[in-house]
Amino acid sequence: MKTSKLIAAAALSLLAAAGAQAETYEGVHPLTSGASRSEVAAQAVDAARAGNLYAEGASAGAQRFESTADRAKVHAEAVAKAHDPFASLDRRAFYRDEVPAAYKKPKVSFTRQAGL
């Protein structure tokens, strides 16, 4: 009885081994282009200079922009924003989208200058 089970198991294993054939490796795909390196390089330069042909306004070229803001006012706003320590706080970065009270305190300095 043991030999019949052993023979059956061996037959099944041979059948499974014969059915599990791996594919053969064909290697790298063969070259299908007839263009030389210099021709491909020239085509690449042309494509890079052409830009995105499917973008909006690609054929319009550079467009002129006229600002209506005062230069001194924009500069003053930029300096004020750069010196504001809480300007970069984003409430979405905190728990329940709320800036903690510690960040909302007014800036008070409790240090003293040494006098001579």
Please provide a written account of the structure:
It contains four helices and no strands. It is flat. It has a domain of 33 residues. It is mostly helical. The model has no long low-confidence stretch (mean pLDDT 77).
Please give a handful of descriptors for the protein shown:
4 helices; 116 residues
The first-to-last residue Cα distance is 109 Å
Q: Which range does the strand content fall in?
A: under 5%
| Annotation field: number of helices | 4
Structural class: mainly alpha
Average pLDDT figure = 77
Give the overall silhouette.
Answer: flat
Low-confidence stretches: none
Radius of gyration: 37 Å
What about the largest sheet? Answer: none
What is the helix content? 40-55%
How are the SSEs ordered, and which strands pair?
Blueprint (H helix, E strand, L loop, with lengths): L1 H18 L17 H14 L20 H13 L17 H4 L12
Summarize the structure in short.
The chain is an all-alpha fold and 116 residues long. It contains 4 helices and no strands. It has helices at residues 2-19, 37-50, 71-83, 101-104.
